[in-house]
Structures are given as structure tokens and as C-alpha cells.
Amino acid sequence: MINVNTFVERRNALKNLMSGTSGIAIFPANNEAPMNYPSNVYRYRQDSSFRYFFSKCRDGLFGTIDLESGEMTLWGDDFTMDDIIWMGDQPTIGDYAKECGVATSHTTEQLSEFLVKARKQGRKIHYLPVYRHDMIIRMAELLDKQVNKINTEVSECLIKAVIELRLVKSSDEIAEMDKICDTGVLMHQTVMKNTKAGITEQYLAGLAEGVSLSYGTGVSFPIILSQDGQTLHNPFHDKTLTDGRLLLVDMGAESESGYCSDYTRTIPVSGKFTQKQKDIYETVLKANMECIAMAKPNIKWQDVHFHACKVLAEGLSAVGLMKGNAEDAVRAGATSLFMPHGLGHALGMDVHDMEGLGENFVGYDDKVQRSNIFGHRSLRFGKYTKVGNVLTVEPGIYFIPRLIEQWKAEGKFTDFINYTKLADYYDFGGIRIEDDIVITDNGCRVLGKPLQKSVAELESFMR
Predict the structure, then answer these.
(1) Three-state secondary structure call for residue 432
(2) What angle do CA 357, 265, 458 make, to 5 degrees?
(3) How far out from the chain centre does Cα 75 lie?
(4) What is the pLDDT of residues 248-288, one digit of tens each?
(5) Does residue 1 have a pLDDT over 80?
(6) pTM, full prediction
(7) How far is CA 282 from the centre of its chain?
């Protein structure tokens, strides 16, 4: 469990990283989000950066760090008796301040006064990109800015410092992620045990979400569970399972401490792969396992992505769907017809860790630039790895009829793609295999308990 000293250490580390930078860093907590009227709200989800530096606490709070004096303050208003009647006794703002190791707490009215004074003194207010509309309006009020200026005037130096800290996970964080990965494994195994023809996708998705709520705080992102696996982030669960189809299941859970898991498995509805399915599946599995074996500190993750694409090209050539030199096909972008996404992304307190702070800040730097080629440019993390980075490894092969038809009509990559034979795969769907890894001193480790992924393991488990 993350303890109070950790929050103090994180805030001090941020201040030290921003040494020489003047001003005040402000972190807003998320507010409650109404479903259909103010008192009927969605499950509360704290802002990840607020939680990283100030603990989970509650809605309606702000945390500040004075980058010059080092003073740290929690701002918010105590609940009223009207609130307590409905909610029961609640901690005071002072109680929450103790929870995260902050010595000073004040009201939100005092925060407004504090920020007015700071601006009059010419002090810079540093803040991260704001993604909820109610908070965009509130920050505009607090900082006396136009609403449409809030996310154009964020602090790049604060963004980079927060990313540097959050990308490298401590041993405590890894322990929390191992536990929630175990929950992700149980979600998948629950689906595997109940998959059969005649069952609805919605029923299976509901079973999995129930597991995530029983062992955590719910799903880490909306569950992707579909026979139409060629749609990368298919949000719909409206089909009934049919023998002969593949079921792609991409899902994870979120822990009480705020960390996420993210696994994908693709399973045969009948419990047994056809030879055609097996050929494609084992190509994706080979890419997954070879990329995990490559993972270690100080390796350019973009190169690992390219290796995955090369393995896919070789496997697709073996069944006659591609041709020519595999490395040339990867460089040209021909493999993106089959895998139009990147190998993986950072994982942590967000399932796409810190994506809201800017993908290029998280996944790229001066040494590694994002590709401008379709498919390759969708790689969310490409830079050199460090010990403590947590990444997903998720190669896939998808047969997207509309995309195939478009490329065929444009005559794209005819030296590498056998469009004639692809006609037999329009109803195939898609396959993705995803694991979560942490970069260690000498290589990497897959987080959580083992989750079946070989053809033999899956078929045996589903029996």
C-alpha cells in the first residue's frame, strides 16, 4: 500500500526536479460527475496526478507546491451538516491533509485569494492539461484566463517533470500493479470458462466487470469484448457468440490504490482453433514472446515495435498473405494494413499512462521521434526504456475489409501484399495478445500471475 511518506517524497522530488523554476504548481482534484442529475453520480475517479502527489482524498480539492519556498498546501471546504446527514461523518480538510503529509490546509475561498496575490506579484502558476470541462471552467476562474486559453497555456516544464517521476515505478507501485494484474488475469479466465456458442458478448462483459468490482474499483477502461476483433477498440457487446468465430477480449482492472492492468487474449468460441486461425494466432504469439524476450533497460522501444512488425510480415508471408522482403515491408509501412497500431504503451495510474499530458512527452524525446508512417505513427511509447518502466506488449493481426479494399483500390504496396488471397479473410476478425511488463535491471518481468496464451494452454483451459 502507498503510505503517507511516499506522497511527501514525491512532492519533494518534483520540487527538486523543478529546482530553479519559480512560481507555484497547482493540482486540481476531479469533481463528482452527475449521471443524470446532481446527486446521482458516476463512480468517482480521482485525477491521477493529484492522486500521485496528494493521495486519493476526495472531490473539490486542490493541492499546491510553492516551487521556491517548498510550502505545500491542501485547499478545500469541509462538508456541511446537510452533507453529513446523507453521507455520514466525513474527514475534515485538515484530516485529508494529514493523510497525504501536508502541514497546511485552507478553504477554496482562501485559494482564490492566494492565487490573486500570487498573480499580482508576477508569480507563474504552473498546471497540467485539464481534461474535464467543469474543471476547465473552474481553472479559468481561478487563474483569470479565458476558458479557451486554459489548455494552450499549460506548463511544459511541469508536464516533463511529472512524466519523469511517474514513468519510473517504485517497488511499492510494482507490488500494487502485480496485485491488480492478478485481478486482470481472473477477469480473463472468467470469460474463458464461460465462452461458448449462444452466450452473448454482453453477458461475458458483465461477468468480467463484476470481477473487477469484486477485487478492485472497477475496470481500467471500457471492456473490449467482441467477435469483430478487427475493430481495434470495439465498444459494443451486442452479438451472440457463434462457433467458428474468434473472440477478442481486451480488458483490465483498477486497484484501490489507483493502478491499472491491461491484458488482451483472443480465444476460439468453440474452444478449439481452426488451422487457419492457428496459423495467424501463432504468428502474433511469436511476436509477443520475442518482444518480451527483447525487453530490457536502455533499448529503443520503437525498434522492438519494428521487430514485432517484421515477425508478423514473416508469418503472413508463410501463409501467402504477404510477399517480398519482410524488413522492406516494415520500413515502407505495408505491415500497417494488418497492425495499424503500435506495439504498446506505458501503463500505471492511467491505462494509457499520462496520455492526457501529451503522448509525445510521455513516449518520445530528443533522441527518438515519432514516425510519420501510418500504423507506425500510432506507437504511443517509442523512446529508450528505463528500469521501472511498465509497458504493454500487444502485437496483433487484423483483417479490416474497408481498409483492405481502400489500399487495394489505391494499388498500395502490391509488391508486399497479396490482395487476391486476402479475400478469404474478410470474415476472419482480428487477433491481439497483450501482456504487461516491468523493465528490470537485467531484462523484464511479466506482471501478475501467468495467463494462458499458447494454443494448447487456451484449448486445455477452455475445456
Answers:
(1) strand
(2) 160
(3) 29
(4) 999 999 999 999 999 999 999 999 999 999 999 999 999 99
(5) no
(6) 0.97
(7) 26
